[in-house]
Amino acid sequence: MATDRDIKRPYTVAERIGPLVRRVLARNPSPFTYTGTQTYIVGEGSSVAVIDPGPDEVEHLDALIQAIGDAEVAAICCTHTHRDHSPAASPLAARTRAPIIGCAPLTLDDDGPRADAAFDPTYIPDRVLADGEAITGEGWTLRALATPGHTSNHVCFALEETGALFTGDHVMGWSTSVVSPPDGDMTAYLDSLQKLYEREQDTVYYPAHGPEVTNPRQLVRGMIGHRRQRERQILRQIEAGRTRIADMVPHMYKGVDKRLWPAAGRSVHAHLIDLERRGMAYLREDEWAIHGAN
After folding, report:
1. 126-157 pLDDT, tens digit each
2. In this protein, which residues make up the domain named Metallo-beta-lactamase (predicted)?
3. Distance (Å, whole) CA 258 – CA 55
4. How far apart are CA 189 and CA 147, in angstroms?
5. What tens digit of pLDDT does each residue of 190-218 get?
6. Which residues touch 193 (CB under 8 Å, ≥6 apart)?
7. Each residue of 27-62: b (16+ CB within 10 Å) or e?
8. Which of 51, 222, 279, 281 has its CA 20 to 30 A from that of 41?
9. Does the predicted TM-score (pTM) go above 0.85?
10. Is 197 inside any structural domain?
11. How many structural domains are present in the chain?
12. Residues 95 and 182 grouped into a single domain
């Protein structure tokens, strides 16, 4: 849960939050970014890495440069390429001469009701990290974990020296992750959650939005359970005769701000695609049905 400390955290100030880790909050709060994008600086010696540099805003870039100081930036790492995460990568690289290393590039035109930031067409990595590949600096090692689902190119980074995992938008303590087709994939998202749940070495998660997660496996188990509950709820909606997404959402999200219902509909769609793949539901003349039902 969020605390007053999280909500009132000062912008553009580097906070030391754990061994080898500092955090700088960008001033881009929204219903989908919480208090804003959190950029992480990893390392305390002569070389550091920057994770999720955030939006291309002068105030935020200046704060990052000040926090980096005289250290060499060994890598600018992006978990994925939504516009609240990666646009500052290129200008930061220009100012520090650092390579951009991390997720693959992805630009997707999507005219639907977006539930988060659109994709960043300016992201051009110098190197894409494969699943399990690592980058190193003085006293630190970051290992990439492919975690598709929120986006197909999403990557988490494990700081092996401390047991910290930088989870981007894949796992957050304040909210569930948006999974919005066509690129968002619920099947892949659930597989990626299971992948993290099986990692017993991670002791804390540092998401791109919201407070750190100190009970990571417990949270992930609950998130998997939440998604399974949602799919059962969807199947009950179909059984009750609500066969279109627009009819399901008002009943499934009664306590949610109506402005977020279009985004919720994208999540329902992602679940339905997953259920269709598993042979549990199918689309018939713009209406969803359950196999075996009349």
Report:
1. 999 999 999 999 999 999 999 999 999 999 99
2. 36-209
3. 27
4. 7
5. 999 999 999 999 999 999 999 999 999 99
6. 149, 170, 171, 220, 223, 224, 227
7. ebeeebbbbbbbbbbbbbeebbbbbbbbbbbeebbe
8. 222
9. yes
10. yes
11. 2
12. yes
Q: How much of the chain, in percent, has pLDDT values that exceed 90?
A: 81
Q: Are 155 and 80 in contact (CB under 8 A)?
A: yes
Sign of CA dihedral 199, 200, 202, 207: positive
CATH number, position 201: 3.60.15.10
Name the pairing type of β-strands 164-168 and 155-159: antiparallel
Mean pLDDT of 224-252: 97
